[in-house]
Automatic annotation (TrEMBL):
PROSITE patterns: PPC. The lineage of its organism: Bacteria, Pseudomonadati, Pseudomonadota, Betaproteobacteria, Burkholderiales. Residues 1-133 form the PPC domain. It comes from Rhodoferax ferrireducens. It comes from the Bacteria. This is DNA-binding protein with PD1-like motif. It holds the Pfam family PCC. Gene3D superfamilies: Hypothetical protein, similar to alpha- acetolactate decarboxylase, domain 2 (3.30.1330.80).
Length: 140
């Protein structure tokens, strides 16, 4: 495992920036170990919901975790986040596109260069689920 600490400045899309960071390392599998910061707008898909909720206004990232996969052409993420609103209400769910950094996001990624993550249909859940594969030495 290799760690990659990053700081995202204002205006960046959290999900897109994390996926780009993993791609830039030529890595196919990563975990978000820790994440804190602030957002000006957020998209969270709550448990069991089909569509994300758009949250506009200042919020604090209390925790961020999940996986990031890159298959050589496309990135995919499964990220969860807990947010605190300006009134102190805490919400959490699946991170959707459009989570825009307000002042900063400080994230620690764990890069797994010997592994590959993919998302493939799972007949039991009905969703694309994580598939973990060890990369052969000649594929690295």
């Amino acid at each position: 495992m290799q760690t990659l600490p990053i700081r995202l400045p204002p205006g960046q899309d959290l999900r897109q920036a994390l996926e780009a960071a993993v791609r830039s390392q030529n890595c196919r599998a990563a975990f978000v170990l820790s994440g804190i910061g602030s957002l000006s707008t957020a998209g969270l898909r709550f448990a069991g919901a089909d569509q994300p909720q758009r949250l506009v206004g200042d919020s604090e990232i209390l925790s961020l975790s999940g996986t990031i996969a890159f298959d050589g052409q496309h990135s995919s993420s499964h990220l969860h986040m807990a947010l605190s609103t300006a009134t102190g209400a805490v919400l959490g769910g699946h991170v959707a596109a459009g989570c825009i950094v307000r002042t900063t996001a400080e994230v620690l990624l764990a890069l797994l260069p010997e592994w590959e993550f993919a998302r493939e249909p799972d007949a039991v859940t009905g969703y694309d689920e994580l598939v973990v594969r060890r990369l052969l030495d000649h594929q690295k």
